[in-house]
Structure formats: C-alpha cells, structure tokens
Amino acid sequence: MKLKIAVLSGDGIGPEVTRQAIKALKAIAEYFKHEFEFNTALVGAIAIEKTGIPLPAETLKVCKESDTVLFGAIGSDTFDKNPYQDVFPEQGLLQLRHDLGLYANIRPVIVYNYLLDNSPLKKERVRGTNILIYREISAGVFYGKKGSSKDGTASFDTFNYTQSQISRISRAAFTASLSRRKKVTLIDKSNVLETSRLWRKTVLEVSKEFPEVELDLMYVDKAAEKIITTPKDFDVIVTSNLIGDFISEQASALVGSKGIMASASIGEKYSLFEPIHGTYPSAIQKGIANPTGAILSAVLLLKHFGLAKEATAIKKAVIKAMQLQLTTPDLNAVNPITTEKVGDFIADYILNPDLTDMNIENIYLGQSTII
Ligand code: IPM
Ligand code: MN
Known about the structure:
Layout: E1 2-10, H1 14-32, E2 35-40, H2 45-51, H3 57-64, E3 68-73, H4 77-80, H5 90-99, E4 102-110, H6 123-126, E5 130-136, E6 146-148, E7 155-157, H7 163-178, E8 183-188, H8 194-207, E9 214-219, H9 220-229, E10 236-239, H10 241-252, E11 262-267, E12 271-275, H11 292-304, H12 308-323, H13 339-351, H14 360-365
Parallel strand pairs: 1-2, 1-3, 3-12, 5-10, 8-9, 8-10
Antiparallel strand pairs: 4-5, 4-11, 6-7, 11-12
Helix pairs in contact: 1-11, 1-13, 7-8, 9-10, 11-12, 12-13
C-alpha cells in the first residue's frame, strides 16, 4: 500500500518521539513491502517562531494532500507563562482538527500486565482495565464564542452542541462497543448543563439503534471517582470535548505512564494520530521521553488503513520492549534506555520478529540490538 503521511511533530518532545514512530513505520514498510512517504510540516510554537502563526497555510495543504497525519506534541513554556498573548501554539491543533473535520478523538486506555507495578493504584483494582474513550473534538466549549469585556475584568466561553454533532460521535462509540463488551457510558453533567441534557436525550435516542448495547449514564463528578475506584466497569466512554480532555488524562494515570497512551482523531475524510502526552519541557532532548505513545499512535494509524498484520507487528514489538523492561525512566527508573534506543529496538524487532535471542546487553552498550 502507498501511504502519504504528513508529519507534524510540533514542539517539546514531539520531534524526538515522532522520530521513533517513523522508524517503526519505516520498518513496517520495509518488512511488508509498502511505500510510506513522510512529509514534514510546521505546527505550534515552532511554527509561530518561524512564520508568526501556529498553523501555516502550507501545513494545512500538506495535511490535505496526504492520506493521514502523524502528530507529535504542541505547546511551549514561554506561551504558558504569558496569558496576555492572543496567538498561542495550541490554536494550531484546534484549527487543524477543525479544518480537517476531525470529530472523534479515540483514546484506548489499556493496563498491560507488564506494567502493573507502575500503576499508582493497587494491582487488583487496575488489572484487566481496557477502556475506549470517544471524546468529541469538533465542538463544545473549545469552539464556542468567547470573549472578554473591554476593561478585561470579565470573560466568557460558550459551550455549544448540536444534536447531529452528538449523534455522529455516539454512533461511532456504539459501533465500536459492538466488537467489545457492548457497554457504553455517557459521561456528562446533565444535572446542571443544558448541552449535557441534549447529550443525554440524543444518546438515549441513538442507543435505540443498538439494543444489544448496555447504556450507562453517569455524571462527570461520579465518573472522576469511578475511573479510579472501579476502572474495569468501563468499556466504551462517550463524552464531550472538555469532559473527554479531563477524563482521558485522568484515565491515563492508571496505565503506569502517560507516555504510552496513543490516540486517533477521525473525521469523514481525514485522520490524525497522536500520543496524548504534551510537550514535557523538562525532558526535551534528554533521551528520557517515552516514545511508546507515539509508536502506538502509528499502530492506530495502520489499523485505520486496514493494515492489521502490520499493526500487530508493531504492537508485538512494543509488548516485547515492555516485557524486557527496555524502556525510558518513567517506566524503568533503575535501568532505563533512551528514547532513540526504544525506537531502535522496536524497529529491529519488527524487521527480525523471529529473533527471540536478542542481545539485550548490546542495547545498554549502545550497539546494535540484534546479534
Ligand atoms: C489534548 C490536548 C489538547 C486538547 C490541547 C493541546 C489543545 O490537551 O489533545 O488532549 O485540549 O484537546
Ligand atoms: Mn489534553
């Protein structure tokens, strides 16, 4: 298969983790005889620095001319500390989601047995957790009308949703649940918010199309508790933009490191794949950023294009790295390897899947991973 992939590695640790995802994809292309073409473009703080805007027209063009987008991270400390600027990096991602028509941000939360010791929660509580979050990303308070009073002492944001925006993501979530445990939890705040009441009405309607799927309705404050106390009770979660942002980040804590969480953003025509972590400023170019979230985002990309064998090949390599504790310090504080080395190992394993006798010592010595 020929795939044109736009690479927007962005800011902070984005470039170094995205490089590892590309390594894995290049190994897949070589092993399975595909043609993957990578076209890089600027987004975020780096784009502001170079062009004055967070999403240059050229970047959008590269994305639209590609089959899909691989995204790194966005944001910068300098902007975070200065709330007086009108232009900031994150606008680049929000505009990109909008201009590409992406509406479902899908975030799998999988607790791997190999990482049970890394979870902040008791093993028996998290073992077996497997949640799929469908976060709406085309609307809500992220895109509603906003503004400030002239004297700057008052501001507002508007939380908007339409029935059709809610029903399309709900259908996607219900459909996904059919090949899972057939349970969907809607998380909202419908005891207070009008938009949440529309969510509840709409999801109840959509659920009639899926009689075999159990629907659970939960307020977000309750969900914040339940994600921690009984994470295994969740299967597919469907929720709005802002609630999904918070809940998915909270759920990411369960798995042991936010660095391993991947996501897929899907629209009618375009798609984008990105790790859920941010720019991790204190880790930039130290070789300590975990590239697994970026690499697993590449797995979601391959699955999206129907390349199931290829997706499994990367996933197996990732699991092997976890089993062997060949990982960055967030997961292995005692004997970690660098970001690059994790990427090298995974690419090597993809190309040599039958080689079970890898010389692990060589990885620590910085030599080839394969004997
Ligand atoms: C995420 C991020 C973004 C969001 C930011 C960078 C705009 O936090 O993908 O979760 O809030 O959607
Ligand atoms: Mn977020």
